[in-house]
Each structure stands twice: as structure tokens, then as C-alpha cells.
Design a protein that fits this description.
With 215 residues, the protein is mainly alpha-helical. Helices cover 67% and strands 6% of the residues. It has nine helices and four strands. Strands 1-2 form a two-stranded antiparallel sheet. The chain binds zinc ion. Zinc ion binds next to helix 3 and helix 6.
């Protein structure tokens, strides 16, 4: 799952708009940003199997990023740090934490059983990746519904459309490109491209909101 995770960010922004969009956008992928770093460091393990449907990733060991207790800890940690740095109201901090946690729940929907319920197991995942077309439809559907709730909120606030259209357009491009380019079995490459992509989307979110305020 890639763009589907941003549904968590957009719903949070729709419900609690006092945190900047970029903070929700980074929060909803915080677990994968951590995964990228841990993969590069060799602490967590990934390989690639192109015979698998949906996603070629074999996520054999990721207790510190994608176990349920780790996701809860990332949620509390990221929410605390961002709320403190950005001097956010408590409710906005809470929604940043929920955006972080939404990552694990959405991964649970699509991953094959590779998400540890405790630090190392038992491993769970409903495996929607095994039904690649359905998985893409669910991701796009979640994003579309979340974008609609965000648009509704922005309409109420009298904000323009330029920023959101750019943001959603970039997400759609980033969803399609990996479908056309097979992944290399290179953990350092996978981790660094994941981190670069998530930070770039955070930057687009920052620019989209910055631009919109001036609409
Ligand atoms: Zn993930």
C-alpha cells in the first residue's frame, strides 16, 4: 500500500485542521520511514520475489517498525515530538498519533501475514495484496473518500482547490510509476528510495498548503 496510507492523513486533516498537512502526511508514513532506515542499517530484513502478486516485497523481519507494539510507540513518539515542535493543541497531537497508527491498520489489510502482533510474532495480515486489482481499487477508493472529506472541510473554510489538485495528482503519479518499474532486490536502494519518496510527498504537502493559503 502506498497512496492508500494518505487517506489517514487527509481524514485527520479534515477532522482536525489545526495541524499542518505535511505533519499528517509524514505521520501516516512514519512507520515506513522508520522501516526504510532500519532496512538500510540491516536491522530489519526485506527481499524481493517477483512471482508474488500485488507487491513483490518479502518482509521477513520488521519488529521495530511494523510490529503492533512498535507502531503504538511510533505513534506516541511522533505525536509527542511534532506537537511539541509545532506547539499544537492537544487534540491536533492526538490526531497526528492516530495518523501514525492508521499506517499499521491499513498495512494489516493488505500485507500477507508479516506484521508481528508482539515484537516478533505471531504475524498477521489479511493479504489483500494477493488480489492485486482489488487492492489497488481499495487504495484508490480510500484515498478518494478521504480526499472528499478533506475537500468538504476546505470548502467550509473557504480555501481554494489549487493545492489539493496538485497534491492528489502527485500521489496518483507516484502510485502508477512503481507499477511500471520492477523493484530491485537491493535493501539499501529500497530503503533509501522509500525515505526519499515519503519526504518528497511531505514537501509537496507543505507546498500545496502554502500555495493554498494564498489562493
Ligand atoms: Zn508499512
Amino acid at each position: 500500500m502506498f497512496v492508500g496510507h494518505y487517506a489517514g492523513a487527509l481524514v485527520a486533516k479534515a477532522i482536525e485542521p489545526r495541524a499542518p498537512l505535511w505533519s499528517y502526511v509524514l505521520a501516516c508514513q512514519a512507520v515506513d520511514i522508520a522501516w526504510g532506515g532500519l532496512i538500510i542499517a540491516g536491522v530489519e530484513k526485506v527481499s524481493v520475489d517477483h512471482s508474488l502478486p500485488g507487491s513483490a516485497l518479502v518482509l521477513s523481519h520488521m519488529p521495530y517498525s511494523h510490529s503492533l507494539p512498535a507502531a503504538v510507540l511510533w505513534s506516541v513518539g511522533v505525536a509527542t515530538v511534532l506537537a511539541w515542535l509545532l506547539k499544537l493543541p492537544r487534540r491536533a497531537g492526538l490526531f497526528i498519533g492516530l495518523a501514525v497508527l492508521s499506517h499499521w491498520l491499513l498495512d494489516f489489510l493488505v500485507h500477507r501475514p508479516d506484521l508481528p502482533l508482539l515484537w516478533t510474532g505471531p504475524k498477521v495480515g489479511l493479504g489483500l495484496w494477493n488480489h492485486a486489482v482489488l487492492e489497488q481499487a481499495v487504495e484508490m477508493g480510500l484515498l478518494a473518500m478521504a480526499a472528499a472529506s478533506w475537500a468538504w472541510r476546505r470548502g467550509r473554510e473557504g480555501l481554494g482547490w489549487g493545492g489539493p489538485v496538485v497534491f492528489l495528482g502527485v500521489l496518483l503519479v507516484l502510485q502508477v510509476v512503481p507499477l511500471l518499474t520492477p523493484l530491485a532486490d537491493d535493501p539499501v536502494g529500497l530503503g533509501s528510495s522509500a525515505i526519499a519518496t515519503y519526504l518528497a510527498v511531505g514537501l509537496v504537502a507543505f507546498l500545496a498548503e502554502f500555495r493554498t493559503r494564498k489562493d
